[in-house]
Amino acid sequence: MDEQLPGRPTAHSRVTLSKIMTAVDVNLYGTVHGGVLMKFVDDVAGAAAARHSGGTAVTAAIDEIVFLEPVRVGDLVHAYAQVNWTGTSSMEVGVKVTGERWDAVGDPIRVATAYLVFVAVDVAGNPRPVPPVLPDDMDDRRRFKEALIRRDHRLARRAAIQKARAE
């Protein structure tokens, strides 16, 4: 019997992680390696997905990651994540990354944004149902609608590629 789980508000899934970037995080240009930021994004998104779904969730796709500003050694970086949309067992998690310059006074700057898809899994690794996300306000409703657009594009792209391969 398919019982729907009770919904959870967007706020329930919100997670923030912070980290000071060090010399081991840099690339040959002296800025933080994109892969370090990608792992940081995946970590915070995974925590939000697990919090919302109430258990293990695994990364299924990274829809988009955009690096807006370089991050340097000593910068304090904050990653903010929340579940934007839920399906039966999958969730889209949005992530915003900001940085505080160690050598400058001022407001944090946005350094990256990303959208990831997670699937909730049981102990055997099989997909399990997730509670619906209940957007808290107009901004969360906008994120929900935009997540549906990204999902539609992801599925259409996948179908078009499969069709092209079959020809």
Automatic annotation (TrEMBL):
One of its GO terms (cellular component) is cytosol. GO terms for biological process: acyl-CoA metabolic process. The keyword Hydrolase applies. Keywords: Hydrolase. The keyword Transferase does not apply. CDD domains: BFIT_BACH (cd03442). Residues 11-124 form the HotDog ACOT-type domain. GO terms for molecular function: long-chain fatty acyl-CoA hydrolase activity. InterPro entries: Cytosol_ACT, HOTDOG_ACOT, HotDog_dom_sf, Thioestr_dom. Belongs to the acyl coenzyme A hydrolase family. This is Acyl-CoA thioesterase.
